Amino acid sequence: MPWVKSSLILGAIAAVIGIIMLFFLKSINIGSTWYVSDAKAFVANYGLVGIFLITILAGTLIPMGSPALVAASALLGLPKIPLILASTSGFTVGMMANYAIAYYLGRPFVMKGISEGKLIEMTRLWSRFGWILYTIFGLIPVLPVELLSLICGMVKARLGTFLILTFASRLIVFTMLACFGELASFWLGTA
Fold first, then answer.
1. What is the model's pTM?
2. Are residues 2 and 168 in contact, defined by beta-carbon separation less than 8 angstroms?
3. Confidence band (pLDDT; 50, 70, 90) for 3?
């Protein structure tokens, strides 16, 4: 599964770059700049609605970087619990859109967005591991759980289980990212 391996490698690279950026921002004392105060004001005014809408799009096949967005929003002072609930709910709505589209339009629609080889491979993985695979993809932010939601819809997987696992896995991920962002805000002095 080279696409899973490349997703994990890119995720690790992004994490390392993010950590380097945090150290760079700490070294220039970013917390005392007007950039941060302007960004905090913007997030305070539009943050939760914006997060909800962007994570709806991120739950579909539109790459929006919702994990980084959640961490950055927490770093800029968005309240942790509302942030977690808005982002988790938005992502779940987006995933439900994927599921519903694939459920009603089927394989021909799914093949427009996924190569036949990847579709066969993901369908094979789904038939072998099912909900365990879906949960693992949901808990690792760099894996394409959005594509797997299309497979779930296409094979008409149980909707209740799909919704519970989507919400629960992203609740865990976004909680960890919001906590990380909040801790980084104290460290950088943006709190």
1. 0.81
2. no
3. low
